[in-house]
Design brief:
The structure is a homodimer. Chain A is an alpha+beta fold. The first copy, chain A, is built from 9 helices and 10 strands. Chain A binds a DNA duplex through helix 7.
DNA sequence: CGCCTATTTGATCTGATTCAAACAATGTGG
DNA sequence: CCACATTGTTTGAATCAGATCAAATAGGCG
């Protein structure tokens, strides 16, 4: 059975292919990883800060985030994760987790023992390279987030995040519309950007008033992509998207 | 000539050994890398955002930072670098640099062609693993910085950064004192933490008033390590320090 | 229908910015 | 070795972006 036949590993392979090109043999090796799939409800921790996991996971379906708890009450979301992402890839090489990972929507998650990943890497140096590059891209995203949180005013920050999430979420679907499912709450946006929920709400209203977006009932529509980009001081290079995502959206000035 | 004989690569090797253990053969291979060393004055860009370098660098002597320019005027420092660090390791796998790297003090910097690094990785899978792990640790540091910038009030942020920098800087020197050279200006602290210089100044005064630190004329003295840790909500795990740094400082409650 | 969660609104307060100017330290050339 | 320039630190005052508190409204769903 060819690797395409494994619907569990398929998003993960697609994601890695957006990082580096893979041979058929390499894809097959990934597809044959011994995985264990689970359904998880929304708003549930998958792993917790301080854990010493023996396996890593990747997301098959749904949206998650990773976060840290700061001063025992505030939460900082450090990343959102979509199908194909491996949010705790780091655990393969770092013994103790420094983040918790939680589902936002109900998710299907696949687990793989570290053992199996390490073997895979040993047998396929190009896959190691893919993982390393994946980590490098994550780091670039973190740098951009730091810049946003540290130096951009709240409304700009929000526009910037919406741009990023639009690209990352729409890369998954087949159609090229400017309307996507958007399951992230205003509270979560605030936790990701270091802004209070109230202020997120008011800033979103400003973006709506400028006719840049429509956001309602879990659906985000980009009414004016280039306007939103300008409002968010956004340029997508840091995401290192290879041409498999809506060209139009990435290229459009 | 044994690898110790190469004073240029020595800090880099020491740094990698803090990431993963290396065999004599591996260390020798690194020591034999074809490098090109340069002296660079303080406050000088080494590489710039947007560059497509064909070589990477590591720091032999001095302190640098990497930064991004946000909205064409504000600066976000995303990391500080000390001898042994490879601030643009990423360039080996990501074509376009998303950060600029600048010296803070005058520096001695060594350059290595990507070519040579890639060869090294091919021949020594364990070195690839070291680089990957290095990148993972950097990412963990970024996550901690994001949490700080996003969720901690300015005085806490500053105390936190001082703790981190103290550990990273004192890991280099031989003696285990609580007094270190500290060449970073208040303006740079502000750019790293997303705070105005004026506010950095006032927050530092608060830390002095509490008898936690003495900072003057480029020298930082930690007067009360556990107090500063508490003030900065700091725990060092995210730095993934292996026991080669002042045990006392890391362990001390 | 009633519960729960998410969004919205209003009012008030404050941490942090900005602007402007003084002061201190370091280094440079005459 | 001192005058001067430069860079970093400190102080004060005015202002503002964003937080906090509190309560109302609106959706979704068992």
């Amino acid at each position: 059975m060819p690797y395409r036949g494994n619907p569990v590993t398929q998003p993960f392979i697609k994601r890695l292919e957006s990082v580096i090109s893979l041979s058929e043999i390499e894809k097959e090796a990934i597809a044959n990883l011994p995985v264990r799939t689970t359904e998880i409800k929304g708003d549930q921790d998958i792993v917790r800060e301080g854990d010493r996991p023996t396996r890593m996971c990747f997301i098959v379906e749904g949206v998650c985030c990773s976060y840290k708890i700061v001063s025992e009450s505030k939460r900082q979301i450090v990343n959102f994760h979509v199908p194909g992402d491996a949010p705790d890839l780091q655990s393969v090489h770092l013994a103790v987790l420094d983040i918790s990972i939680a589902t936002i929507t109900p998710c299907r998650v696949a687990f793989v023992q570290h053992e199996a990943i390490l073997q895979l890497c040993e047998q396929h140096p190009n896959i190691t390279r893919a993982f390393w590059r994946h980590t490098l891209i994550d780091a670039a995203i973190y740098r951009e987030w730091m810049s946003s949180i540290g130096r951009r005013p709240a409304p700009v920050r929000i526009a910037h995040l919406l741009c990023e999430l639009f690209l990352r979420l729409s890369a998954l679907s087949l159609n090229e519309s400017f309307r996507i499912d958007f399951p992230i709450t205003q509270n979560e946006i605030g936790d990701a950007l270091g802004i209070s929920t109230v202020h997120v709400n008011r800033s979103l209203q400003a973006l709506r008033r400028k006719n840049l977006i429509a956001l309602k009932d879990g659906t985000l529509e980009i009414l004016d992509w280039s306007g939103l980009r300008r409002a968010g001081d956004f340029s997508p290079e840091y995401l290192q998207l290879r041409p498999s995502v809506p060209e139009s959206a990435v290229a459009a000035q």
